[in-house]
Every structure is written in structure tokens, then in C-alpha cells.
């Protein structure tokens, strides 16, 4: 099964919303790994103000700020 990564912060309301939306979308289509960037300097420098950021397992960005279902579906089709 494909794995996606969601980078964000626990206290970020956009991050919480995107994580909840992705868990609904996952339903056997992909696995979601949540990564809190708060105390990881390298990820903070990389994603900082862009969170939440959704990437594929290889690090290719799918979307940030808000869930883009069209971009998600396109990436899943490319990976499938």
C-alpha cells in the first residue's frame, strides 16, 4: 500500500483538519504517516510556514495548507 506523509504541528488547526480529511480519504488507498515538525530543525526550515504539507513517500509535495483532492488523486494514480 502506498504511504503518504503529512508534516505539521499539533497545535495547527489547518494541520488537524487536513489530517482528519486524509484519514477519511485513506480507506484502503494509502497509509498516512503524521510527522510533527515542531522540534525537528531541518523539517522546520524546510516546511516552516507551509504546514500542513502532504508528500508522497519520496518527498514529492502533493499539496500544502489545504487538501487538494484532485492533486491527491492524480499523485495516487501516478504511484499506482
TrEMBL record:
Q: What is the protein name for this chain? A: Glutaredoxin family protein
Ranked from the top, the taxonomy reads: Bacteria, Pseudomonadati, Pseudomonadota, Betaproteobacteria, Neisseriales
Source species, please?
Chitinibacter mangrovi
User: According to the lineage, what is the superkingdom?
Assistant: Bacteria
Could you tell me which Gene3D superfamilies the record lists for this protein? Glutaredoxin
Query: Record's InterPro entries?
Result: Glutaredoxin-like, Thioredoxin-like_sf
Pfam families on file: Glrx-like
